[in-house]
Design goal:
By secondary structure, the protein is α+β, with helices and mostly antiparallel strands. It has helices at about 160-170, 175-190, 190-210; strands spanning about 10-15, 25-35, 40-45, 55-65, 80-85, 100-105, 110-120, 125-135.
């Protein structure tokens, strides 16, 4: 989540846990929208106990730069807070919320601490202040090639990156696939708006240049 990532849509996987035998491990597969400061994806919690824990939830939430200035290119100077909630079916589902998580990450978005709680077998379970790290085996935390010529600022649609779509396609994660399909459809439907905005911008540039 360095300065280079502040416009874009990209996937990231976080592994949350101590790594100790018998301890629970949370895996978050997320798609981050750095313009809207929103996050969607899936959570999976496993634990080698009897019976084994196998918890899953569709998750969504937000992230903010909680402390310090906006991060510089190297990610220093900020702490990123990601707040998530989840259930079965996503934010538009009528199912109860069964998962909450808060992640505090260094400005580069690669390491930090997390606390979460989940509802399983009729009981809420809490895990607090455990290490979190980005999985380097997924993809680098850098945007991939832009699909088409569209881009996004505060006035237009989010750019979709090839690596994001490739990741969703091979992950087998239905929630990710649906999310990416929605973004792609929004981009295709916004082409006329983008063209009109670009024409207006070019006209304004020409007007200002003529005054110089």
């Amino acid at each position: 989540m360095s300065e280079d990532l502040r416009v874009g849509l990209f996937p990231v996987r976080y592994i949350v846990g101590t790594g100790l035998p018998g301890a629970p491990q949370l895996v978050l597969n997320l798609v981050v929208d750095t313009v809207e400061h929103s996050v969607v994806g899936a959570a999976a919690i496993s634990q080698a106990v009897s019976p084994p824990l196998n918890f899953h939830a569709d998750v969504w939430g937000t992230y903010v730069f909680r402390l310090g200035p906006p991060p510089r290119r190297d990610g220093r100077g900020a702490i990123v807070q990601i707040a998530l909630q989840g259930n079965q079916g996503g934010p538009h589902s009528n199912s109860m919320i069964t998962f909450y998580a808060d992640l505090l990450l260094k400005g580069d978005g690669k390491t930090g601490v997390a606390s979460y709680r989940y509802y399983s077998n009729g009981t809420w379970h809490e895990v607090e202040n455990v290490p979190v790290k980005a999985d380097p085996e997924l993809v680098p935390l850098e945007p991939g090639p832009v699909i088409g010529a569209s881009s996004r600022t505060a006035y237009g649609p989010v750019p979709l990156y090839g690596v994001t779509i490739q990741y969703a396609a091979v992950s087998g994660d239905l929630a990710h696939m649906k999310t990416l399909a929605t973004y792609a459809r929004q981009q295709l439907e916004s082409r006329d708006d983008i063209a009109a905005a670009l024409s207006a911008l070019k006209a304004e540039i020409a007007k200002l240049e003529s005054r110089q």
